[in-house]
Amino acid sequence: MSPLNDSYDLSLAAAALRSNSADVHALVKALCSELSDTLGDRLRTQRSGGRRHKTDEISSVQIAMANDQFEAVIDGGDLRCTVGHVSGGIRIRTETVDTDQWITRLLQALQAEAAHSDAARLALENIVIGGQK
Fold first, then answer.
1. Tens digits of per-residue pLDDT, 58-101?
2. pLDDT grade, residue 13 (50/70/90)?
3. For residues 67 and 128, what is the distance between their CA atoms, to the nearest angstrom?
4. Of 23, 16, 4, 1, whose CA–CA distance to 100 is shortest?
5. Would 5 be classed as within a structural domain?
6. Between β-strands 78-87 and 90-97, what pairing exists: parallel, antiparallel or unpaired?
7. How far is Cα 57 from Cα 108, in angstroms, rounded to an integer?
């Protein structure tokens, strides 16, 4: 079944992605790796460490897609996730969600974008069904 098919269970894909990345650092790094080329400057990451000693470890990620802003902050071994809704350039609502909901909603936004973007479609396929980057 194609990941672009509306009946494809993105919740199941999110749960599979989450279970394949037991470490939240690995999960965030994998998502950022898959989405960086597709989203460009709509994906922003913050690295751990101070001003002089940045590490490769991601401490937070912000993703802007359509009218939604997805943010995930690594807090120890947990991932604190929010989804904000923007209207007219102003954030009007922010909702705290669990990791599976955050990934599912992110994949849904990517799926909507994939309808008109080959790059988004390929990123979605790589995340949902696996593939070579």
1. 999 999 998 999 999 998 888 999 999 999 889 999 999 998 89
2. low
3. 22
4. 16
5. no
6. antiparallel
7. 26
Q: Alpha helices of the chain — where are they, by DSSP H? A: 10-20, 24-39, 99-114, 118-129
Q: Is residue 7 part of a domain?
A: no
Of all residues in the chain, what percent carry a pLDDT higher than 90?
A: 32
Q: Is residue 9 part of a domain?
A: no
Q: Any bridge partners for residue 93, and if so which?
A: 85
What domain range includes position 57? 23-124
Question: How many structural domains comprise the chain?
Answer: 1
29 located within any domain: yes
- 101 neighbors 81 (Cβ within 8 angstroms): yes
Identify the pLDDT of residue 47. Answer: 87
User: Is 60 exceeded by the pLDDT of residue 20?
Assistant: no
